[in-house]
TrEMBL record:
<protein>
    <submittedName>
        <fullName>Extracellular protein</fullName>
    </submittedName>
</protein>
<dbReference type="InterPro" id="IPR013320">
    <property type="entry name" value="ConA-like_dom_sf"/>
</dbReference>
C-alpha cells in the first residue's frame, strides 16, 4: 500500500457567548457654510472619498453660554464668537457624494471644534496601535492673507466632547490659539501657568498653522495673542508642529521693550516643527497619524509612552503616490503622562480651528476612525510561468507570462466589523487580467469574480467583497489572474497601479510594485494539451511553431531546440527543412518518459541569441491520483453554548477533491485523523472530539486513521470526485461535545491521507 499524498489543514470550531446590543441610530441636522463662497463650493466639488457618518460618530462641541456682561469686542475691536462654527456637511462631488465633510471655520473671528463620540465607541485607545487617516483642506478665500489654521487634538479634558480653549473670562479663544492652545490675552501676565490653564486640558495637539503670529513690539502687543510664532525656526510662515497645550512649558515669557509698566507676551515652544511653503492652496491633502504604544498591543494597561508618526501629503486624491520630495513626515516619542489618565487608556480625539482678522476655509474628511477598524492592504505579484514572485523593478519578466496579482487585506481590529468593502483595482499598463477570485482563509470560502468584469479591456476591476472582515475572519485575498503583454519587441514598463478598498468603517488603499517586461522578438507556440495522459510504452510528439514579431523570415537551420524532462536536460537539436520552424515536432520516446508524471519544458534559441518563451507540458504515463482542491481551513457552526452529547454540524461547504487520471479499475481511498481542539488564547482543551458518521449512522472517532471515502474507476476518463458531495448536516465529519464547553475559539488539525488502493476490510 502506497501513501501518495498527505495533507494537514487547520479546523476551527467557534463558540461565542453572544450579546446583541440594540442601538438607536440618529443623525444631527447641520447647516452648511456660506454657499456664496466659491472656494468653499470648490472644496465640496473636489472632495476625495471619505467615510459617511449616519450614526453621529462625531459630536459638534457645545461651548458654554456667553458669560453675563461678557464683551462682544476686545478693546481694539477684535470680535469674540461664543458659538461653535463647526458643521458637518456632505460632499458635492458626484463621485464621492456620500462622504461626510467637517467644516470648522469659514469666516473671521471664528472658533470650531468637533470631537469623537464616546457613546458610539469612537475614541483613541493608547493601549493599541491606532491609525487616523484623513484629508484636510485649507482654502484661499482671496483675501490678503489666510488664517489661522486648525489642529488635530487628543484630550482627556473633564469637559469631554465639549472641550475648547476658554479665556479666563469664559470666551472661546480664537486667532493663534486654534481653539486648543491657551489665551495670551493679558499683557501684564507674569506666569505661563495662567495661559496653560486656559488651554484644552490633559491634551496633545498637532497644529496646521497657516498664519505667522510674530508681533513683538511694545506698541504691537495688544493683549490679544499675536506672538506665538515669533521665534519659529526656518523661513516659512506656515508650519506643522506639535505640543502639549495645557503644559506651562509650552509658553515662553518675553518682554516687549523697556516700557513702564512692563509689557509681556508669550512665544510658543513648538515640537517636531516642519515648515511648509504653502498649506493654503485650495487643494485636498492627505494626512496619516499613527500611534504605536511602547507596550504589547494586547495589553490593557495604559502605556507610559509610544511612538507617534505623522505624514503630510502622503497620497494624492486619485490614490497615487506623490513625489517623495513633497511628503513631509516625522516620528517622535510621546509621553502619555500629560493626559493624566487614571484607569483607562482611551482619549477623545478630534479637530479644533479658529480664525482672527483673516480667515480661510478649514475642512476635513476622515478615511478611518482609530477605534473602529484598523486593516492593512498589501500586494504581491507572482509570475506563474516562472513560478516565482516578481520584485520591484524586476526585469526578468517576459511577454505572455502568466501572472497573478494578489491583494491581501489584513483586519487587525478593533470594535467594528469591516463590511461592504468595494474593491477597485486599477489594471496596470501592459497587463491583461482574465479572471479573479476572492478567498477567505478563515471560512474556507472562495468566490469567483464575475467574468463580465474582465470584458473589453477595463481600466479597473471593481467588485464588492462578499464577506465582512472581523475578529473571527481577519483575512481576505483577492487574486487577479492574467498575463503580460503578448508581444514586446522592446522593453516594456509595467507601472505601479492603485487599488482602493472602501468599506463602511474604513477606507484604505495600496499600490502594486512596478516592473519591466523584457523584449522578445521570437515566440514559441504549441497547441498540445497542458496535461496529457498516455499509455505505457507510448511515444509522444509535441507540435510547436515559431514566429518573429518584426516580420523576419524564419530560417529553420538557425533554430536550436532545448528541452528537459523533470529538470533533466535532453540533447539539443537544430531544426531543418523536414522539421521546420514553421511547424516542428519535439519527439519524446517512451524510454525518456520513465516516470508516472513527466514535466516537459522546452524553448528555442536562434543564431543571434534571441530566446523564446519556455513552454511547459505534463505527460502522465498510465495516469495519476492526487488531491485536487482542498479547503485550507474548515469550520464548524458557531454555538451560543454547548450541551453534553451535542453534535455540532459543519459550517459552509467543505471541499476535499480527488483527481484520478489512471486506467479503468484503479482504486483509491482517503483516510483522516484529527488532533484535539484547544483555545489558542486560554489553551483550554475542548471537551469532545471529531467524529465520522457514515450513511448508515455508524459513528467512529477520528483519533486514529479512519477510511472515510473510497472509489474504483469504471472507465478510463479522468475523474474528479468530491468526498463531501453526499454528506448532509447529519453525517460526514462532525463535532461531538461531551459537556458544556466554555466560550472560545477552538482549533486543531485534520490529517488527510490519499492511498492508491482500497482499504483492506
Amino acid at each position: 500500500m502506497n501513501i501518495f499524498y498527505r495533507k494537514r489543514f487547520l479546523i476551527f470550531a467557534i463558540f461565542l457567548c453572544i450579546l446583541i446590543l440594540f442601538l438607536d441610530i440618529y443623525s444631527t441636522k447641520v447647516a452648511g457654510a456660506d454657499t456664496g463662497d466659491s472656494d468653499y463650493e470648490h472644496a465640496l466639488a473636489t472632495t476625495p472619498k471619505g467615510l459617511n457618518w449616519d450614526n453621529n460618530n462625531f459630536v459638534i462641541a457645545k461651548f458654554p453660554p456667553k458669560p453675563v456682561n461678557a464683551p462682544i469686542d476686545s478693546p481694539s475691536g477684535k470680535k469674540y464668537s461664543y458659538d461653535n462654527n463647526a458643521t458637518i456637511v456632505r460632499s458635492k462631488n458626484p463621485a464621492t457624494k456620500d462622504t461626510s465633510v467637517i467644516s470648522l471655520t469659514n469666516g473671521t473671528y471664528q472658533v470650531g471644534a468637533v470631537w469623537s463620540n464616546f457613546e458610539k465607541g469612537n475614541y483613541f485607545d493608547l493601549s493599541h496601535e491606532q491609525i487616523a487617516s484623513m484629508w484636510i483642506y485649507f482654502g484661499n478665500t482671496g483675501g490678503e492673507v489666510p488664517g489661522d489654521g486648525m489642529a488635530f487634538v487628543l484630550q482627556n479634558d473633564k469637559r469631554k466632547e465639549n472641550a475648547i480653549a476658554l479665556s479666563s473670562t469664559g470666551i472661546p479663544v480664537n486667532g493663534q490659539s486654534l481653539g486648543v492652545w491657551g489665551a495670551d490675552w493679558d499683557k501684564t501676565n507674569l506666569y505661563p501657568e495662567n495661559i496653560a490653564k486656559t488651554a484644552i486640558q490633559n491634551s496633545w495637539a498637532m497644529e496646521f498653522d497657516t498664519y505667522k503670529n510674530l508681533l513683538t513690539g511694545a506698541n504691537e502687543i495688544s493683549g490679544e495673542g499675536v506672538s506665538f510664532d515669533a521665534n519659529n525656526p526656518g523661513t516659512y510662515s506656515q508650519h506643522i508642529a506639535t505640543g502639549f497645550p495645557a503644559s506651562y512649558k509650552t509658553y515662553v515669557k518675553q518682554k516687549a521693550g523697556n516700557t513702564n509698566p512692563p509689557i509681556y507676551y508669550y512665544t510658543m515652544h513648538h515640537d517636531n516643527f516642519i515648515g511648509i511653503e504653502n498649506l493654503v492652496d485650495s487643494n485636498w491633502h492627505h494626512v496619516t497619524i499613527k500611534w504605536s504604544p511602547d507596550i504589547s498591543v494586547n495589553s490593557q494597561t495604559t502605556p507610559t509612552g509610544g511612538t507617534m508618526t505623522y505624514s503630510y501629503n502622503d497620497k494624492n486624491p486619485d490614490g497615487s503616490m506623490p513625489d517623495a520630495n513633497n511628503i513631509k513626515s516625522t516620528s517622535f516619542h510621546l509621553d502619555t503622562a500629560n493626559f493624566n489618565l487614571q484607569s483607562d487608556s482611551k482619549l477623545y480625539w478630534g479637530f479644533t480651528g479658529s480664525t482672527g482678522k483673516y480667515y480661510e476655509n478649514n475642512l476635513m474628511i476622515f478615511e478611518s476612525i482609530p477605534s473602529f477598524v484598523d486593516a492593512e492592504a498589501t500586494t504581491k505579484i507572482h509570475d506563474n510561468t516562472q513560478n516565482r514572485d516578481i520584485e520591484k523593478n524586476d526585469s526578468q519578466v517576459y511577454p505572455n507570462d502568466d501572472v497573478s496579482y494578489f491583494y491581501n487585506l489584513d483586519y487587525k481590529g478593533w470594535t467594528k466589523t469591516w463590511n461592504g468593502i468595494n474593491a477597485k483595482m486599477n489594471v496596470p499598463k501592459n497587463i491583461h487580467f482574465t479572471s479573479g477570485t476572492v478567498s477567505y482563509p478563515a471560512t474556507g470560502n472562495t468566490y469567483q469574480i464575475p467574468s463580465d468584469k474582465f470584458l473589453n479591456a477595463p481600466a479597473s476591476i471593481e467588485t464588492v467583497l462578499p464577506e465582512q472582515l472581523n475578529q473571527d475572519s481577519r483575512k481576505a485575498i483577492v487574486e487577479l489572474k492574467g498575463h503580460t503583454e503578448t508581444i514586446a519587441t522592446e522593453k516594456l514598463n509595467v507601472p505601479s497601479a492603485h487599488a482602493s478598498f472602501e468599506g463602511d468603517n474604513l477606507i484604505t488603499d495600496t499600490n502594486t510594485i512596478p516592473f519591466f517586461i523584457q523584449a522578445r522578438n521570437l515566440t514559441l507556440k504549441s497547441n498540445f494539451p497542458d496535461i496529457k495522459k498516455i499509455g505505457q510504452h507510448e511515444d509522444v510528439d509535441i507540435p510547436a511553431e515559431l514566429e518573429y514579431h518584426d516580420g523576419t523570415s524564419l530560417v529553420s537551420s538557425n533554430m536550436t531546440v532545448y528541452s528537459s524532462i523533470n529538470d533533466k536536460n535532453l540533447p539539443s537539436f537544430k531544426l531543418n527543412d523536414s522539421n521546420p520552424a514553421t511547424g516542428f515536432m519535439l519527439h519524446l520516446s517512451s524510454d525518456q518518459l520513465s516516470s508516472k508524471i513527466n514535466i516537459v519544458k522546452f524553448y528555442v534559441v536562434d543564431n543571434l541569441g534571441n530566446k523564446t518563451n519556455v513552454i511547459t507540458k505534463q505527460i502522465n504515463v498510465g495516469g495519476t491520483v492526487q488531491f485536487g482542491s482542498v479547503s485550507p481551513q474548515l469550520n464548524f457552526k458557531t454555538m451560543n453554548l454547548t450541551s453534553p452529547n451535542e453534535i455540532i454540524p459543519r459550517m459552509n461547504n467543505w471541499q476535499i477533491d480527488v483527481i484520478d487520471s489512471r486506467e479503468k479499475g484503479s482504486s483509491w481511498s482517503v483516510q483522516a485523523n484529527a488532533s484535539k481542539l484547544t483555545d489558542s488564547k486560554t489553551h483550554q482543551e475542548f471537551d469532545g472530539a471529531l467524529i465520522y458518521r457514515d450513511p448508515t449512522g455508524k459513528v467512529s472517532y477520528l483519533n486514529n486513521d479512519l477510511t472515510i471515502a473510497e472509489n474504483s474507476k469504471d472507465n478510463d476518463d479522468t475523474q474528479e470526485k468530491s468526498i463531501t458531495e453526499n454528506w448532509n448536516s447529519q453525517d460526514g465529519i462532525l463535532l461531538l461535545s461531551n459537556s458544556q464547553n466554555k466560550a472560545g475559539n477552538y482549533s486543531g488539525e485534520i490529517n488527510w491521507s490519499l492511498i492508491d488502493s482500497l482499504n483492506n476490510k
